[in-house]
Amino acid sequence: MKKQRILFLGPPGAGKGTQASMICESDDICHLSTGDLLRAEVASGTSLGKQASLVMSKGELVGDSLVLSIVEKKLSNISKGWLLDGYPRNINQAKALGELLHKLKQPIQVVVLFEIDDDLLVQRLLGRGRSDDNEEVIRHRLRIYKEKTTPLIDYYSKDGLLKFVKGDGEVSEISKCIEEILS
Ligand code: AP5
Fold it and tell me: 13 in ligand 1 pocket by Cβ < 6 Å?
């Protein structure tokens, strides 16, 4: 049976959001992007959004407990499959997610790691032009990714959950590779 509890891991600009939207639409599962959820909080001017806004504009990670509260609320109310995009981002978040999913009896089925060259990421993100997509902040996000998020590669490979996909190339080709992984 096709996998329906999926985690996407990879640096900023690797194409996680692009691929996640396509899969979630075709497989009718829920796309949970913590970046999108946080930006929605910022746009609505909630107190959570106000706390997150400055941190996000600098390319730092928003506090673990704040992000967990968003993810927990969403995951606890989903009655179908899901794809987590941009969460977890450090070991502490991964442990908290593991506990939550254990409680919900919904273990992760696969972790897809996007691999791509730094310079290509920077080019892509400069072309996208989101408010946190200027070169200085992009490079900082990349440093944070390497320092805080890459330890998750070992963390999930120990569970045998990790699969790799090349993040460069045509969107449709990458999509095919992911489809194979999920099948
Ligand atoms: P988030 O929104 O997760 O941003 P990010 O990690 O920087 O990732 P992106 O969305 O930029 O990259 P992506 O891999 O999804 O690429 P995309 O598909 O968009 O997080 C933003 C901020 O929120 C963080 O810095 C942090 O402050 C906070 N945050 C979020 N989650 C958090 C957490 N768990 N804990 C703490 N803080 C958190 O593609 C990028 C561009 O490339 C697009 O223009 C796209 O069209 C293009 N593209 C995609 N695929 C291809 C392709 N194959 N070829 C050519 N172009 C392509």
Answer: yes
